Amino acid sequence: MVSESKKVTVIGGGITGLTAAYYLQKAAQEKKLPLEVTLIESSPRLGGKIQTIRKDGFIIERGPDSYLARKKSATRLAENVGIADQLVSNATGQSYVLVNERLYPIPGGSVMGIPTQVFPFVVTGLFSFTGKLRAAFDFLLPRSKPQKDQALGPFLRRRFGDEVVENLVEPLLSGIYAGDIDQMSLMATFPQFYTIEQKYRSLILGMKKTTPNSSQKPAGGQKKGGFLTFRHGLETLVEAVESQLIKSSVLKGTRVVKIEKEEDQYRLLLHNGEALRTDSVVLATPHGVVPDMLPQYDFYSPLKDMKSTSVATIAMAFPSEAIEQDIDGTGFVVSRNSDFTITACTWTHKKWPHTTPKGKVLLRCYVGRAGDETVVDLSDSELEKIVLEDLNKTMNISMKPDFTIVTRWKNAMPQYAVGHIERMEKIKQSTQKELPGLFLAGSSYEGLGVPDCIDQGEEAVEKVLAFLGMNGK
Looking at its record, which EC class is this enzyme (predicted)? Predict the structure, then answer.
C-alpha cells in the first residue's frame, strides 16, 4: 500500500494524453489513491488533431471525422464521460476509386482492397483482363518465407500484381497513413495480411474465411456503417473528457523544454523558466520532440530519422443546386495513375447527413501524401482552385462555394517504415532501463487512429500505476 503522495505528469494534450490524464485521475478518485496528476499541453487547446468547426449549421472536421466502431476503446471512453448517447453511425453507400479520369465503384466484397468475393472482381471495369488474371495467381502462389518485417507494397504485389495494387489497394491503404506502401512496414500497419497468408496461403481465401459477412442487413433495418462519430462532431469527445479533468491540473500554452532524471524523480524544465518535479511521466507528444526534451539519451536518436508526412483538408460548402451532375455515393479515393492533385474526397453530406443543413452540400477533399507534399504549402485560394478543377472532372459544379475551410497538418502523419516495431521496442526497453517511470505513448508508436491512441493512453495508465505500486489497490 502506498501512503506517500505521488505526482504523475502527462506531457501532450492530444487524445492519447487526454485519455491517460482522465483515467489516472479517475483511478485516483475511485480508489482514493494518493496521486496528483498534471496534464501539460504546449498549444492553447486540448485534443491535438481532433478539431471540429460548427458554422452556419454545418459540422466540419479539420482532422479525423470518425473512428472504427469495432475498436471499442473510444466508445468505452465516451461511455465513461457520459456522451455515448450522442454517437452516430455513418450512412452506408457506394464508394469509388478514381483511375485514369474515371470513377469506378469499389468492387463488392473488397476488404481494404483485398477481394473476398470473386464475381465482383471478375465483372469490374477497374482492371484489365490481364490484371485480373495476375491477381488470380494468389490462389496458386505459395506462402512467403517467414520474416520479421517487410514493405507492404512488395508483399501485396507478389500476391496480386501491380495493377490491382495500384488501382485499388494502394489508394485505400496509403490513404490511411498518407504514406508510400513501398516504404511502409507490413507488420506495423497491416500485420493481419501476413498472419492470414502464413495460415491460409492464399490471401483471398484467408480474408474470406476471417472477415465477417457484412453484406447481411439487420432484420427490418438498414445496413449499419462501420464508423462512429458524435452528433456535434468528434471534438465533443475532447470537450467531454476535458470537462471531467480537475481544472487546476491542466496547463495549456506550456511547453516542456527539457526532462532531467534526478534520483527517484524527474525535473521538467518549462519554457517560462519554471521547473516541476514529478515521480512518473507519460510522454504523449509527437515523436520528433522527444529527442529535443531528452538530448542526453542517444537511444532516442532513431526518432529524429522517423519521417512524418504533411497533408491538408479542404472542406467546401455549397447550395445543393450548385451540383449539376451528382454522384450516388459517399466518396472516392484517387489512384496515383490519375492526373489529380486530390487524394480523396468525402461527400460528407451523404456519409454523415447530420453534418449538413437541408438544401446544402458539404465536400471534404484531401491533398498531400508521401513524395507529394509541396501542394500543402499553397495558399488557401490556390488549393480551392485546384480542388474545384479536380472535382469538375467528375461532377459539374456551377457555383463557387459558400465558404471554404483549409486545414494544414504539417509533419503530422508518422510514417511506420520497415523495422518500425523492432526500433520502437528497443527504444522502450532502453527507456525502461535508463528512465524507469517514463512511458512513451501516441500515434508515432502503435497506431494512429483515434482508438489506437486511446488504447495507448489506457496502457500508459496501467504502466504508471504498476510503477508506483498502486495497481493492486
Answer: oxidoreductase
